[in-house]
Amino acid sequence: MANRINVKLILELRSGGMSQNEIARTRHMSKTSVSTVVNIAKEKAISFEDIRDLNDDVIYRMFFPEKMLTEDMYELPDYEYVHKELRRVGVTQKLLWEEYRDRCRANGTLPVGYSKFCDDYNRYAASNEITNHLDRKPGSRCEVDWSGPTMKLVDRYTGEITTVYLFVSCLSYSRYAYVEPTLDMKMDTWMRCHIRMYEAFGGVPVRTVCDNLKTGVVKHPKEGEIILTDAYESLGLHYVTAIMPAGVRKPKQKASAEGTVGNIATDIIAKLRNVTFHDFPTLKEAVARELKAYNTKPFEKRPYSRIEVLAEEQEYLRPLPALPYEIATMVYDRKVYPSCHISLKKNWYSVPYMYRGKHVDVRYTESVVEIYHDHQRIASHPKFPDYVVNKYSTNPADMPDEFNRPEMNDERMLSWASTIGPNTREVIERVFRSVQIKEQGYNSALSILNLSKHYPNSRFEDACRIALNNTNSPRYKYLKALLLESGDFSHSESGENRQSESNNKDQSPGLYLLN
Questions:
Q1: CA 158 to chain CA centroid, nearest Å
Q2: Could you report the per-residue pLDDT of 340-375, keeping only the tens digit for each?
Q3: Distance (Å, rounded) from C-alpha 507 to C-alpha 63?
Q4: What CATH topology corresponds to 141-316?
């Protein structure tokens, strides 16, 4: 509806003896409007008594029939519908006016202009005591911050005091709050609070507005791109929410969180001020209990409670991802060793062999290790637990050909020994039987097998046969001493030969051992 001159009020004040200038000044009307009404009344001989019982539309038609005719030509918008639609994410007054204009053209009626559309909607909102802040649409944003006021833990035995910080957040539309006590304000703690916050909300808003805290924001210039920490940016990508730091020294840009911080100080911290907490779980339980009471308490200046309005807002939140975000740690400039592995927390993880000698960045969570070069992921491994050390996670495809030979083990060693002969296999089996853990026999067995490369199989078999008859577990030195003797071992076991050899002053170390 157009701005109309209040004809009835002007004539009423004029009949009471008030001058035109006084009417214009005291009722904030233009002198031209007041003069126009007075002149038309004189021309048409209309007094206040004539219009006292008439409604405003009839009076206005009597004084300005041509304006009423013009107004009747327009199809006025449904501002109740406009207000309802403005609550939806992405909907603007400009969009609704364009849709209204197209409907009017389709119906063969005239639409009001965009300026009048906006002005009339603002008057509708004011007259119905409703507001339309675009930053308070359902699901559009949440605000996060650290609370200035803190709590404390008192050691039961020493009296030592530990400061407890409060992570505070709320959805801007429903004002539903999430509060979590923490023992520090580190980056990992900040991120974990976000993860549990989104779960408490039952969804993710389009924007997450934070303060310019050092743990989350690297740079926030007056002009140019805002730079977040890699971890904070990664969390926003995982939950498909825009991380938007508020302007520097502009608390009104996160007024909901600022207000919630004050409410939390009253509804939680102040209510628990006389309770002494000796352990963190008890404090968390108490904070959760008071937070629930805060969210279920009815609003003072609007109907319902925060938790009731949340049920409506959840329809507009983005769904939670299938898996929660895992907190990751970045390690930069790690060297790739000639073995094609990098070292991380005393364990080793392989990368493709072409990156040997280069430096890479490592991102790891509690379960996964990811290796990057020039911002491209080149390898991924399951992470060893922190208590495991000196273990290798090797992808065979990462290794060059010379590394891709099967690893030597007891089965391969026994198979190798079998190709030489049964006595050699028996020697290797005795080596493994003589140790508690088979890996302890690897070096001894492999040294014996490598020794076999320098002699014919038949000669090595004879040496093993003699060794087996004279010792329970032959070793490398014993066999080597035997093999250094020249000649054939085929008659060396006869008692006569052994006796004659034992009397020989120049007997060899190997034959001496045979006695």
A1: 38
A2: 899 999 999 999 999 999 999 999 987 899 999 998
A3: 143
A4: Nucleotidyltransferase; domain 5 (3.30.420)
